[in-house]
């Protein structure tokens, strides 16, 4: 009996040990699987989305240690999202413009919108090298490689135009861009940044210090960390000359002392616009001013702001020949050279105490407003989302965490109570809903600079898009008026019409002091890199009578709400239509 009991006891002990071992093995296997899946998600975020994946994963998930939930949210619904929207529509049209209905409907739509992801272009990781590996200049580009030079972003020698392309930058692309703007040298840094100028940097660096491979061209050198690979663009200047845009700014009253106003001048018999523009371009000035046989180069200043032109009859002759302007007036032309007095930008040195939103409905000009704010204040703007196209073109705040408080303000299209109350104050940008809807529809089907095709406009997606987005335009404003703590309401049309006064209001709201010359520089560079070409725009009326009736009701609701909060109402051009 004792022997049988001993055997039973021994068996139970073995079983207990076996169960413990199996439990531990199960937990370890589960942990390893979890770690593997987490690593897979991060790798997919950084390398891009496979073509056979059902839902695209935005690149923002590739940040080490953080998977930011904002990157998984898209406040702009895709076309397929609109399937089943009928279930969200009220049967009575006269109830659709009710603020209560708009807010409740917007909440439902916002939840649906957030289920869809942004498809962002994956970026290549920076080239990591254990030691310098010599790179041959095998790229198919023209011009002489001048060497490797030191590069200080704050005190640049190549002070001309600056371009970024963190996916497709090549030596040829940089050279052509600089040549079209009449620069002699093209310098590349960090594998993706292009700088233009007419003077070589003074301090040369060791050749091996320029070790960054061009993002869009394997085997080519595009500078390094604080290093510039400089190439000559002289051979391309002649070919690019016919493509350069010399813009006629108008006839203006000449300042009292032209020599004091303009830093460079030239007196030339039989002076032509091309001669003066070429001279000023080489001197790296954005303005070419002609008075008779005199050519002056400079910038718009408070002494010569270019705000009030005069009748062209005051400037005798024509714009294309050796014209002679009157003694009191002069002809002004915009050269291909960029005004660089306001192009330097940086992150805030200390965290901002006030968390400011730059809020707008999609298609209302938020990117343009960010361009103006960044160049006026000298500080980057942030974003609640991540747009690779914007980051590639110099909006470096796109990759900074939106709550870092290192940016002057943060772009957002969100309009829920929780999202609004996170901010201490906000600039609320409002645009004509007709224009906003068309701009956002173009962006969805053709990107930031393109236009949707006739097929897109004639498809069933357009009516569904209007039905969904028109209510969002109204509820976005209504909710910010209701929950916003401190607001500055800016109408897109007013900003476009009176740029300097409105921009001053925005800068003062952000508690930043700027000079008049910097604001004039912003005005000189007002368009930025994301303005659609008006030449490609088609003149047609995409809105039906039913659409107009719906949108006009929303306009009246928003106008009434603005006036109820003691803000100016919507511009008159919004209605009737």
Model description:
It is built from 16 helices and 17 strands. The termini are far apart. It is an alpha+beta fold. Among the domains are: 95 residues; 74 residues, no CATH class; 210 residues, Rossmann fold. The longest helix is centred in the first third of the chain and has 46 residues. About 17% of the residues have low confidence. A hairpin with a 3-residue loop joins strand 3 and strand 4. Strands 1-7-3-4-2 form a five-stranded antiparallel beta sheet. It has a five-stranded antiparallel beta sheet with strand order 8-12-10-11-9. Strands 14-15-13-16-17 form a five-stranded parallel beta sheet, sandwiched between helices.
Looking across the biggest beta sheet, what order are the strands in?
Answer: 1-7-3-4-2
* The named CATH superfamily of one domain: P-loop containing nucleotide triphosphate hydrolases
| Individual helix count | 16
The main sheet comes to: 5 strands, antiparallel
State the helical fraction: 25-40%
CATH top level of one domain is: Alpha Beta
The CATH topology of one domain is given as: Rossmann fold
GO molecular function: sulfotransferase activity
Organism: Bombycilla garrulus
Keywords: Repeat
InterPro entries: P-loop_NTPase (IPR027417), Sialate-O-sulfotransferase (IPR051589), Sulfotransferase_dom (IPR000863), WSC_carb-bd (IPR002889)
């Amino acid at each position: 009996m004792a022997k049988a009991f001993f055997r039973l006891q021994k068996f139970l002990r073995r079983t207990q040990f076996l169960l413990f071992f199996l439990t531990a093995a199960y937990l370890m296997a589960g942990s390893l699987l979890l770690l593997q899946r987490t690593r897979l998600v991060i790798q997919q975020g950084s390398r891009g989305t496979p073509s056979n994946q059902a839902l695209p994963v935005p690149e923002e998930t590739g940040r080490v240690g953080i998977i930011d939930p904002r990157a998984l949210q898209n406040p702009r619904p895709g076309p397929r999202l609109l399937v089943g929207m009928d279930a969200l529509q009220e049967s009575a049209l006269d109830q659709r413009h009710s603020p209560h209905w708009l807010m409740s409907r917007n909440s439902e739509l916002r939840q649906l919108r957030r289920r869809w992801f942004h498809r962002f272009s994956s970026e290549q990781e920076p080239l990591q090298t254990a030691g310098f590996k010599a790179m041959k200049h095998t790229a198919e580009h023209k011009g002489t490689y001048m060497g490797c030079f030191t590069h200080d972003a704050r005190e640049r020698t190549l002070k001309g135009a600056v371009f970024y392309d963190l996916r497709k930058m090549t030596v040829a692309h940089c050279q052509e861009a600089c040549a079209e703007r009449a620069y002699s040298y093209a310098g590349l840094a960090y594998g993706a940044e292009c700088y233009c100028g007419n003077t070589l940097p003074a301090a040369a660096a060791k050749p091996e210090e320029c070790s960054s491979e061009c993002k869009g061209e394997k085997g080519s050198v595009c500078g390094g960390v604080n290093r510039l690979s400089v190439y000559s663009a002289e051979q391309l200047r002649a070919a690019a000359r016919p493509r350069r845009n010399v813009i006629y700014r108008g006839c203006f009253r000449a300042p009292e002392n032209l020599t004091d106003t303009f830093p460079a001048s030239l007196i030339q018999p039989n002076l032509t616009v091309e001669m003066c523009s070429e001279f000023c371009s080489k001197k790296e000035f954005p303005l070419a001013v002609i008075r008779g046989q005199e050519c002056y180069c400079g910038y718009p200043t408070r002494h010569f702001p270019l705000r009030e032109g005069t009748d062209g009859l005051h400037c005798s002759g024509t714009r294309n020949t050796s014209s002679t302007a009157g003694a009191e007036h002069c002809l002004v032309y915009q050269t291909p050279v960029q005004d660089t007095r306001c192009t330097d930008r940086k992150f805030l040195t200390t965290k901002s105490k006030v968390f400011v939103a730059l809020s707008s409905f999609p298609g209302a000009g938020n990117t343009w407003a960010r361009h103006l704010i960044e160049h006026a204040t000298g500080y980057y703007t942030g974003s609640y989302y991540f747009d690779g196209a914007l980051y590639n073109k110099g909006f470096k705040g796109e990759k900074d965490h939106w709550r870092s408080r290192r940016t002057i303000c943060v772009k957002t299209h969100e309009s829920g109570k929780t999202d609004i109350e996170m901010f201490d104050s906000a600039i609320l940008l409002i645009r004509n809903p007709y224009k906003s809807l068309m701009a956002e529809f173009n962006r969805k089907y053709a990107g930031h600079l393109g236009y949707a095709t006739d097929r897109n406009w004639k498809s069933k997606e357009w009516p569904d898009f209007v039905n969904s987005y028109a209510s969002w335009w109204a509820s976005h404003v209504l909710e910010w008026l209701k929950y916003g703590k401190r607001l500055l309401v800016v109408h897109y049309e007013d900003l476009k019409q009176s740029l300097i006064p409105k921009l001053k209001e925005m800068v003062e709201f952000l508690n930043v002091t700027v000079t008049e010359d910097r604001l004039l520089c912003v005005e000189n560079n007002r368009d930025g890199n994301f303005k659609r070409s008006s030449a490609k725009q088609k003149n047609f009326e995409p809105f039906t009578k039913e659409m107009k009736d719906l949108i006009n009701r929303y306009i009246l609701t928003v106008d009434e709400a603005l006036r109820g909060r003691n803000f100016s109402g919507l511009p008159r051009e919004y209605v009737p239509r």
